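> agent: user asked for a holo structure of the chain below bound to fe (ii) ion. Plan: (1) validate sequence alphabet, (2) canonicalize SMILES, (3) run complex prediction with ligand conditioning, (4) return tokens. Step 1... ok. Step 2... ok. Step 3 dispatched.
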Amino acid sequence: MAAGSLGLATLGAEDYIRPLEPTSEPIHIRVLFETDPAREAVVAWTTTAEGESHRVYVCTEPREGDLDAYSLDLASTHSQPYTLRAEEETAGMYGHTHNVFLGDLEPDTRYYLTVVSDEIASDEYYFKTAPDDDRQVRVVGVGDSRTPRAGRTHPENERRQVNDLMRRLVEEHPDIVAMIHGADYTNRAYWAELYWWLKDHAEMTTTSDNRLLPIIPSRGNHDRDVGFEEMFWWPDRENDYYYTTRLNSEAAVITLNTEISRGGDQREWLESQLAELRPAKRWLLAMYHRPAYPSVRDYGTGSSQRSAWVPLFEEYGLDLAYESHDHALKRSFPIFDGEIDEERGVVYFGDGGGGVPQRQPDPDRWYLEMTGRHHHAHLVTFNDDHVEVKAINIDDEIVDEFVLTHDRRLVLDGVPSGGE
Ligand SMILES: [Fe+2]
């Protein structure tokens, strides 16, 4: 749509494109993790005005906004305006992102922070770094958090309900290290949509005592625009959003990118990572957007992932693969070499229920042990001798549950397969 052609009727129908007051008030305060969440993080926030000074004050003790008392005072490492489309400019939207890279952090430590842009200070928040020993850790998994077109700004839309569920999980399980996001955050990575995603994340996942839930992002087919890179900035990113995150000394998440070639450099990188991580790590989980074993779309849609990645998963004994994109809930049987194999198989679970309307999965596929339709998040717990996975819906019901033991035999917990 060309600039100036945005009629009032269109504005009414898509009221997520709306004028924003330009101000230096910090909003969208969040934390990003990448490879080493025990020692590195990015604190990011938004102002609608460009502003002049953007700083974060950080300390391992709460300072309740007394700026002189914080041990670190850091200027924004990277600030830039979000790329706006003509209709967003015409509507009077503004957005500037500010990012501070924190290195040399201590493992398993609370970092309290206050963000200040042009002398407007935020509340004090904190985040927790990951441990670097072998203690139990958890992640919450979510994917496909784009909302129905009419519900992007609705205060009780499904994305916000799933975010609220994740907040409750973090409050209940303080050993959650981060949220792993299986991608498709919004319909397009345009500022008018990212604004609401970031608002929902900050407002709904932050705990009642102001703990921020760090984000480990992956990239999906709805995230190809540059706004995604602006929203999830990291210094000197080495490649296009594939990387390994060490959750503790024994568990790692390998994030892959289904929006670029699954072969070539990415496949070589995956093989080198798996060779390095196995057997050094006890638990390996891969996260990527488009499934190898889809629950709704045709089986053929998984062929690129199955030909490039699955043989490596099997060769190196990957434990779990977390997938999204199909907008349902699923868990596969353990699969090895195209067959169900309880001893050696990889379990593929997920399929994306973070807010997008749920589709009807096909429960009759040979490789699917469980399917359902739920707006949901996964709670994945990495223990010393087992991994426990629970899918929880927005009514707080456990709708799937399984345990993977260290000798790789799948132990099902009596949860019925199939059904809503
Ligand atoms: Fe997708």
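> agent: step 4 complete. Summary for user: The helical segments are 8-13, 86-91, 158-172, 191-205, 226-231, 264-277, 303-308, 310-315. The chain has a mean pLDDT of 93.
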